[in-house]
Amino acid sequence: MNLLYLGLLLFVTLLTTLYLASSKAIFAVSDWTFHAARVEEIYLNLKSGSFFTFIAARTFHNTGAASFLFYPYIFFYPWAFLRFILSPVNAFYAWYALVTFATATISYFSMKAYSKKSLASFIFSLVYTFAPYRLYLGGAVFGEYLAVTFLPLLFLGIYEVLWGDKKKWYLLAISGALVAYAHILSVFLSLEFAVILFIIKLITSRGISKDRIKSLLLSAGVCVFLVLPVIVPFFTDFIGQGLSSAKPSISYTMGPRYLLLNSFSAQKGWKLSFMLMLTILTAWAFIKSRRNWIIYGLGLFACFLTTRYFPWKLTAGTPFEMVQLTARYLSYASLFLTILFALGSSSVLEEHVTGRKKLALSCSLAVFMALFSLSSLSVYRDTLKNVQDMPKTSANSTQPAPFKRLRDYNYYNQFNYKILFGAFDYMPKSSLTSVQKQNSLLMHQAYLNGKTLTLSPLIKANQISYQVKSEKAADVDLPVIAYKHTTVSVNGQKHAFRRGNRGTVVVGLKRGQNTVTVGYKASPVFYLSIVISILSWLALLIYLVKFKAKYAQ
């Protein structure tokens, strides 16, 4: 049955993706330009023979912004590699299909390990993968979109360590690492629910055994080794460097009425599906086990967290403000409520369906979910028909990227606009003290001898060069951000520099024509962290092979 269900999941994945891809267009909304620029930088660096990307030399207006250091990007490599064989628009939709099918597959096998029921796992995978909120994330919010892929495996790992087979601690280590490589904030959100589950374990079991504590600590320790390349840059380049990050604040909450009524509409967005809303209203009537009551409570709590009735004002000045948008908790509400929906609906169906009827039922469910998803995505398709193409603008424009349509022929227009959300993330705070400073970076403005110069950059992977002519010895303030491991050379020779009042590279020049090159050289600790991480993954793989062999006996 596994192959049948996976085949049906692939069918729904391809149908929904082809429906979107047939538009031959992308709606550049929300975080799209931020992530698209990161993928473009990776692709161009790969094209020039450089595997690692540290700073934005070719995108982000050539400011040298280091979002690559502090925002994981490993799962964007498949998208970048697809650019070598497909057009820009088709490369995105191919990547979208890969992530969708990966989500469906991981969801299916995670639920199968938890419930031991194939039909329940199939229903869970369908409803979770094609949930309206996840479809919304797939349009532009790619960090969270990727993290959602691994949440079922993550909570399976938590369940195994706290209640199930504690020898399967590796599930928690692996899934935690995968979430960290996708979206750091999702690690924080997941930890909130992990702590709640730990407290529930202590209460319901009147404590926890030493063996389970050891498994929990082992999974956490191994997870840290697996994600060292994500962690290390924060210690080597962020802490104590006066850098900015995403602004911590709760900027939007929903009302319960909005969540309830919106969930019965057809389109994707900040909502639950009508199936999950019905689960909220009816699940209490058929829940019998303590375990399912816990899941139900977590689902309701996640919904409560999305609303303004949770006292979010009390979180001011705390790490909980990092959430920013409380709609993020919809991913967790979808996860928990879909478990109950899948268990309940599959139990009812299996009582009345056997043999060939079960096959027909499975195919019908796949077709229904495909039609439901196409209905959710139809508004997006209609928008693509009516919105205008993104027009051209100057290479150093300060105009924010508009919500416009991208096609293959105008795909590159987006990179000349200022990125709407995240253009100045992870820059020195001194860069952000005025709009004038920000715009001067976007417009490639340098300062020399009291004059403002507009320079044209010469670009290589992780490297930006400028030709600067000075009538006398003087300092030049270049429009490139200075980080702890930034490197500077003048006329091919390594040169000292300082950070200016824009947070940029300031270097002393001699009279005459000078070629100033700003680059980034990662700390040796970073490369060591990669080696340790790879060895840790290999060691874990060897352990799993031996564990499975022993388990099979």
Plain-language structure description:
The chain has 19 helices and twelve strands. The chain is of the alpha+beta class and 553 residues long. The longest helix is centred in the C-terminal third of the chain and has 31 residues, at 356-386. The protein starts with a helix and ends with a helix. The model has no long low-confidence stretch (mean pLDDT 92).
Write the layout of secondary structure elements.
Blueprint: H1 2-21, E1 26-28, H2 32-47, H3 67-70, H4 77-82, H5 88-115, H6 118-129, H7 132-137, H8 142-162, H9 169-182, H10 184-204, H11 210-226, H12 228-238, H13 256-262, H14 274-286, H15 290-306, H16 330-352, H17 356-386, E2 404-406, H18 435-442, E3 445-448, E4 451-454, E5 458-460, E6 463-470, E7 474-481, E8 486-490, E9 493-494, E10 498-499, E11 504-509, E12 512-520, H19 524-552
Task: Quote the beta fraction.
Answer: 5-15%
Count of alpha and pi helical runs: 19
Low-confidence region ranges: none
Beta strands, count: 12
Largest sheet: 5 strands, antiparallel
Rg over CA atoms, rounded to whole Å, is 25 Å
Report the average pLDDT across residues: 92
Looking at the structure, what is the overall shape? Answer: globular
Query: Percent of residues in helical segments?
Result: 40-55%
Q: What class, by secondary structure content?
A: alpha+beta
Strand sequence of the main sheet, in spatial order?
Answer: 4-3-7-11-10
Distance between the termini: 24 Å
